[in-house]
C-alpha cells in the first residue's frame, strides 16, 4: 500500500448522518399516515418519538464529537416547517436555527438536507411530484429554509435518494404516495430535477455562493447469471437509470432513462446543467439482477457471492462495489462526498470492519484521482428504518428504544482513532466469522 492509500489528506472530513423523521420524534407527515394505514412490514410499528433527538440534540452532538466526527448531517422536516400549505411554523424554524447554530458552535460542520423521503400530509393531495405544482411547492419551502442556513458554511443537499422515492413511491407503490405508474414516475422524476434547480436558485439568492448537491443511493449492480446477455443488459440499463440518470441530468441538463416495459424518458432541462458543486454518494451494497420474462422483468437479489455473510438486514457486504461506484462518479468532474455508508449490525462487532474496508476503498479511489472530500457514517444512532421499522441497527451508538439511553458500539472508538489520526488502521479486534455475524 502506498502512503496515499493509508493516509487521509489534511481537511478530509469524517462525520455522521441522520434524517429528521428517523431520529427526531413527534412528527406528523405522510409516513406517519402510511404507518397508521398498516403499510410497514410489521403493521403495528410506529416511528412515534423516534429516538428523541429533537430533545436530546445537545447530547447527540457530544456523541458525534466523541466518535471523531467534525460534520453532522441532518434533514429539515418539511412537515414541521409547513404543516399546512403556505402556513409556516415560526417556532419550528427558530428551533432548527437554534440547533444548527449550536451544532456549528460545538465544532460540527452542518450538512443539511431539505428533503429526506418525507412530505407534509397535504403534499401528495395538492402538489404531488408528478404534477408541475410540486416544483413551486418545493421552491417556496426552500425559500423559507434559506435564512436558517445563513453564516453556517453548511454543505447543502436538496434531495436525498430521489430514485428511492421514485421507484418505491411511484413505480412499486411500496412507500408514500403508493402509486404504481411508469409515466407518472418519469413526470415525477422530471419535476424533482426541476425542483432541485428551483431550490438551488432560492438558496443562492439568500446565501450567495453555495456548496450544494444531491445524495444519490448508488448500488453496485451485477448480472445474476454472469453469462446471460439479458441479465447483462438489465444491469447496464438499471445502473444507468438508478445510479446515474439523476447525476447526469444535474450535470448535463439531459434527463435520460430507458427501462423497457417499466418507464422511459428523454427530456432536456437546460437549467439543470451544472447545478451541483459536488456528487453525493450513499453506498451500502451490491445487488444482483436477473431478467424474468414477465412484468416487472427484473428480479433483484442480495447474494453472498464472496462469502463475507450478508449483513443483518440481508444486504451483501461488498466494499469493492463502493470503489467501483466512486470511480464511476469521477466522470462528473466534481468533488465527491460520501453522504452515507453504513451497516445494520445488531451486535456491533462487524461495524469497525465494514468501516475499515469501505474507507480503504475511499483511499484507493482517491489515489486514482477521485476527489473524495468526506465520509459521513450512516448513522450516528440506531433509528427508525422506514418499512423495516425498529429491527435494523445502523448506529455507531446503540439506542435502547425504551429508555432512549445511548451506548457506544466498538465502531465509535474505531472511527475516532481513524479520524483523529488521519490514517487508516485495522480494527483492534478480528472480524467475526460470517456465521457468527448473522
Ligand atoms: O435509513 C436509510 C436512509 O434514510 C437513506 N439511506 C439508506 C439508509 C439505510 O437504509
What can you tell me about this protein's structure?
With 438 residues, the chain is α/β, with parallel strands linked by helices. It contains 14 helices and 13 strands. The relative contact order is 0.14. The model has no long low-confidence stretch (mean pLDDT 97). 5-hydroxymethyl-3,4-dihydroxypiperidine binds next to loops.
CATH superfamily: Glycosidases
Helical region count? 14
> Describe the biggest sheet?
8 strands, parallel, barrel
Number of domains: 1
| Mean pLDDT rating | 97
Give the class-level CATH name.
Alpha Beta
Classify the fold: give the CATH topology: TIM Barrel
Helix/sheet category: alpha/beta
Secondary structure: number of strands: 13
List ligands, each type once. Answer: 5-hydroxymethyl-3,4-dihydroxypiperidine
Order of helices and strands: EHHHEHHEHHEHHEHEEEEHEHEEEHH
What are the low-pLDDT stretches, counting only 5+ consecutive residues below 50? none
Label the CATH architecture. Answer: Alpha-Beta Barrel
Multimerization state: single chain
Strand content: 15-25%
